[in-house]
Amino acid sequence: SQKIEQNSEALNIQEGKTATLTCNYTNYSPAYLQWYRQDPGRGPVFLLLIRENEKEKRKERLKVTFDTTLKQSLFHITASQPADSATYLCALSSYTGRRALTFGSGTRLQVQP
Amino acid sequence: GAGVSQTPSNKVTEKGKYVELRCDPISGHTALYWYRQSLGQGPEFLIYFQGTGAADDSGLPNDRFFAVRPEGSVSTLKIQRTERGDSAVYLCASSLTSPGSDLTGANVLTFGAGSRLTVL
């Protein structure tokens, strides 16, 4: 069966460090992968999109990598700030089967001042 | 509108009752999605519309759940004979393009704040 796995344990890091979040998937032929941020009581907000033929994408302090051989995406936040504390969700759209985004369960990031 | 609007923000109902949740998407967005999110989980896909028609309703858990989008803008998610297990946050999202129709553009979802449903 298709699975998207994110670390369910919260990630705690110190301000200024780089946060790295992992998204692994199985039994998908992804067309693209997206990362969203979700704050408590709010809907997810889009951050970055990376296509299957792209290795890396950057936006300000954010960087996403996509390895279709390892079936993994890494999401990095450099120079992290307490305001980056939130839950981060990865989501896949597939060429086959369901085209609408399927989300992972998210990883909560806590940046300590 | 400027964003995706969902009403009500909170709904408390009793087991067995009928519930309607409304979503007003961003003007001009052709695709509209409903997701359900339980505590500590990611959004779970329910259904998406392309225009007025349901393009994929494979995520609806059973026939107590139904959604409509009669004029291609506002959508209503309807839940009959609610059960305690239906308690969750129901998220609506819209996108400019529909998934698969423009892979080079790809669809980025804009979500509403959600409707929290509690079934007692």
Brief summary:
The complex is a heterodimer of chains A (113) and B (120). By secondary structure, chain A is mainly β. Helices cover 0% and strands 58% of the residues of chain A.
Could you explain the architecture of this structure?
Chain A is an all-beta fold. In chain A, 0% of the residues lie in helices and 58% in strands. Chain A contains no helices and 11 strands. In chain A, strands 2, 4, 5, 9, 10 and 11 form a 6-stranded mixed β-sheet that branches. Chain A is globular. The model of chain A has no long low-confidence stretch (mean pLDDT 93). Chain B has 120 residues and is an all-beta fold. The termini of chain B are far apart. The mean pLDDT of chain B is 93. Classes of the chains: A mainly beta (113), B mainly beta (120). At the A-B interface, strand 4, strand 5, strand 9 and strand 10 of A face strand 5 and strand 10 of B.
Please give the structural blueprint:
The complex is a heterodimer of chains A (113) and B (120).
Chain A: E1 3-6, E2 11-14, E3 19-26, E4 30-38, E5 45-51, E6 56-59, E7 62-67, E8 72-77, E9 86-94, E10 102-103, E11 107-112
Parallel strand pairs in A: 2-11
Antiparallel strand pairs in A: 1-3, 3-8, 4-5, 4-9, 6-7, 7-8, 9-10, 9-11
Chain B: E1 5-7, E2 10-13, E3 19-24, E4 31-37, E5 44-50, E6 53-56, E7 65-68, E8 75-79, E9 88-95, E10 110-111, E11 115-119
Parallel strand pairs in B: 2-11
Antiparallel strand pairs in B: 1-3, 3-8, 4-5, 4-9, 5-6, 7-8, 9-10, 9-11
Which key terms come to mind for this protein?
heterodimer, A: 113 residues, mainly beta, B: 120 residues, 7-stranded mixed beta sheet, 4-stranded antiparallel beta sheet
